[in-house]
Design a protein that fits this description.
113 residues; alpha+beta; Alpha-Beta Plaits; four-stranded antiparallel sheet; two-stranded antiparallel sheet; 3 helices
């Protein structure tokens, strides 16, 4: 099993949600986060003082997939989130040792289906 964590632009969320149905994936968690990277943010003047906004709003998506679903999911996220500009985001992939569905006690890949 794999855990895929993707940090994307907020305006790309609806496009990413389409992946779930297209690839028949079962679950998705979404969090609004703030971060900084090469995009750098912007500067504004507030009441005559210069203010740096270097933490930008991003969406963090977490999904857990079977090993054979990982590459198609990653490729689809890249395709949907791409703009070619700084701030498109990053994807992190981790191995998951086990999973348990609390309601039924199912373990492993059965727990994420």
């Amino acid at each position: 099993m794999k855990k895929i964590e993707a940090f994307i632009r907020p305006e790309k969320l609806e496009d990413i949600k389409e992946i779930m149905e297209e690839l028949k994936l079962n679950g998705l968690s979404i969090m609004q986060v703030m971060g900084c990277g090469n995009q750098k943010g912007w500067t504004e003047f507030v009441r005559g003082a210069e203010v740096d906004y270097n933490f930008l709003t991003k969406i963090k998506i977490e999904l857990f997939v079977e090993d054979h679903q990982a590459e198609p999911a990653i490729s689809a996220i890249i395709k949907k989130a791409y703009t070619g500009e700084y701030g498109d985001g990053k994807i992190f992939i981790s191995n998951i040792q086990d999973a348990v569905r609390i309601r039924t006690g199912e373990r492993g890949e059965d727990a994420i289906k």
